[in-house]
Write a structure and sequence with these properties.
single chain; 360 residues; alpha/beta; Rossmann fold; 2 domains; five-stranded antiparallel sheet; 11 helices; 15 strands; elongated; XdhC_Rossmann_dom; XdhC family protein; XdhC_CoxI
Length: 360
């Protein structure tokens, strides 16, 4: 699944190009709990079609009712307005919060833009598809939109004159190794909105790999990392258990701005990897500080899909800037449980057991 913002903006562009009336709704403020974060967008066409989300569904239903469905029992329809943008609040009272499915005490405010300009939407979508971070400024007085490339992501800003929202290209994931675990992790990443590339020079693994939507390449992993050019919206995960494939790729990834760099393996294997990198590749504890391993959060994973859930959860937490409790750390949890090195349930040669995430 592609990046949700790009999907919404592309669909809205296509509606406008086809001559349909439509609106763009953006969450600009929240108070208390909110089902969707500030900056979330949805588009609504005159026929009631919706893409994107600003809530759990009830606010979307209300917007459809307001602008495309009957306002009275006689079936009279109210058209989508035109002109300058407007603001609308939901959940101001306890009754409204309950009606619209907002959490207790939750309130959110939307900016509604009517019939956004198709040319500006096309320009924005093209830039995002090309991997450019873009800043979109909407003038509140008349809805005129200004677009400009952005160097860094930033939170949505509201002033008396304008609303400024930054749209970034989709998050990307590069997976080293095309084994069974990779299939599950790639699938989860795709439905989480990541673009996924899988690298494996081993023909026997590539031949069995089958995840629609994931790009599969066969070059050496360190070369693929260089060509991939990871940025702050990228993560690199090594999953082969083969130092010849994993180590050089990880070293290349650590030289980039990737927000997450990690490798599968046991506590023992990850410690051995660090020792190799320090002894043979001139690394230091400081230069390896960003290298994650054992990866994942501790959920007692036993099977490849459970391991993938564990790893994906950690990646999403890091992406969203959520610190994980220390007792969720795999190594810490295993140390506390005092799992012995010869635990018969540990991961050996890729066979999952009690310590499937880490290998013991």
């Amino acid at each position: 699944m592609e990046n949700l913002d790009v999907m919404v903006l592309r669909t809205l562009r296509d509606w406008r190009a086809a001559g349909k009336r439509a609106l763009l709704a953006t969450v600009v403020r929240t108070w208390g709990s909110s089902p969707r974060p500030i900056g979330s967008i949805m588009a609504l066409a005159e026929d009631g079609s919706v893409v994107g989300s600003v809530s759990g569904g009830c606010i979307e239903d209300d917007l459809i009712y307001r602008f495309t469905q009957a306002y009275s029992g006689k079936g009279e329809a109210k058209a989508i307005p035109s002109g300058a943008p407007s603001f609308i609040k939901y959940g101001i009272t306890a009754d409204e919060a309950h009606r619209f499915g907002l959490p207790c005490g939750g309130t959110l405010e939307l900016l509604l833009e009517y019939d956004p300009d198709e040319a500006a939407l096309s320009q924005l979508v093209s830039a995002l598809e090309a991997g450019q971070l873009m800043r979109r400024t909407v003038r509140i007085a008349d809805g005129v939109v200004a677009l400009a490339p952005a160097d860094t992501p930033s939170d949505l800003a509201v002033t008396p004159e304008a609303v400024v929202n930054t749209f970034g290209p989709e998050y990307r994931m590069l997976l080293i190794g095309a084994g069974q675990l990779t299939e599950y992790l790639a699938t989860m990443a795709l439905f989480s909105g990541f673009s996924v590339t899988v690298c494996d020079p081993r023909e026997e693994y590539r031949g069995a790999f089958n995840v629609p939507g994931a790009k599969l390449v066969n070059d050496m992993p360190d070369d693929v990392v260089k060509a991939f050019r990871p940025d702050r919206r990228s993560c690199v995960v090594a999953l082969t258990h083969d130092p010849k494939l994993d180590d050089l790729a990880l070293l290349e990834a650590l030289e980039t701005d990737a927000f997450y760099v990690g490798a599968i393996g046991s506590r023992r294997n990850n410690e051995a990897r660090r020792e190799r990198m320090i002894e043979h590749f001139g690394q230091t504890e400081a230069s390896l500080a960003r290298l994650r391993g054992p990866i994942g959060i501790y959920i007692g994973s036993k099977t490849p899909p459970e391991i993938a859930v564990s790893v994906m959860a950690e990646i999403l937490a890091v992406k969203n800037g959520v610190p994980l409790p220390r007792d969720m750390d795999v190594a810490q949890a295993k140390n506390q449980l005092a799992v012995s090195a010869n635990d018969p349930g540990a991961l050996v040669c890729g066979v999952p057991g009690r310590d499937a995430v880490t290998g013991g």
